[in-house]
Structures are given as structure tokens and as C-alpha cells.
Amino acid sequence: MTFRTGQFDKQLEEQPLTSEEVYSGIFLQVRRDRARAPDGSVVGREFLRHPGAVVIVAEADDGSLLVEHQFRYPLQRVFVEFPAGKIDPGEPIADCAIRELAEETGHRARDWQHLGCMHPCIGYSDERIEIFLARGLERVGQRLDEGEFLELDTIMPDEFERAVFDGRITDGKSITAYFLARPRLQRNGLR
Length: 191
Hints:
four-stranded mixed beta sheet; alpha+beta
């Protein structure tokens, strides 16, 4: 049997009946919907609306990757992750990636490649994260957002992978972005 996407879509779709905004914050919104399930029953669905985000795998000329050490409040710990940020309303995704790389790392990139999209929390959020590979880095000066604190670092691809497999790097967007970028990296240390 050949795997095909979309072959079960129609028989699994749920039809929205009602939608209620439970909470609206600075950039997240909580919704409570009722929907008709494929068997005709009415089900409740609670989920987050998210404006979307970008993540950037920024590869330096020596093959190292820029990473950030950043405290993430919901889990009360520092994570190692790639530069990332939310998409502003109406902002093209490529512009967001360029802006976030400059703001967070103080770098501009000469070469950009859009690698794809991921949906990190499909059971409770409509968030999408657009993934970019950036090369030809040039230092231009960091401009962090107010209230944003992070430390920059670099890591070689082989060490990034070891850190994923031994549990030191657990950020899902960074792991997905790395494995999408991996075949395109100059020196992944694994060949």
C-alpha cells in the first residue's frame, strides 16, 4: 500500500457550528468551539489562535550554527534554540525572518532559503512556524525587544545532534528546523 496524504480528509472533517472567544491576550487568543463530528455527534473543541512564527537556522561560514540560550517562563528553565519570533500582522514571512535574525542575533544574511512549515501543537493550537536557512552572515548589531533576554552561542551540527539525542536540546521547532536544514548544511560533521 502506498502512503498518500489527503485520502481520508473528507471522511474525517469536522464542521464548525459555534465559536466563542474565551480570552484574548497580547498575541494569543483562546477559543471554545462546538463542531459536528464525522459520526454526526456534536463535540467541544478548545484551542489557541496564534499569529504564526518563524525559526532560522543561521549557518556561519565555518559551518557553525547560531543558537540562543533563553529562559522560557512556562517551563521555568533556559532552553537552547535557534533564533525565532512571531509574525506581525500582515508581515511577509521572509521579512519576519530577516527582522528576527537581526534583532535577536545582530546578524544579516546574504542567502536565504525557505525550507517549509511545521505545526508544533496540532491538538490545541493553529500555530504554524515557517522554517528558514540563512547563510552569508554579517554582524550588524543586536536589537532585542523590550523584555527579551538571551545569550548567543554557536554549535557545530554534529554537536547539535548529540545534544538532541542526549536531551540537552528539546525545543521542537529547533529540532525540526535542524533536520530540515541538515541535508543543505555546508559541514554537518556527519558525512
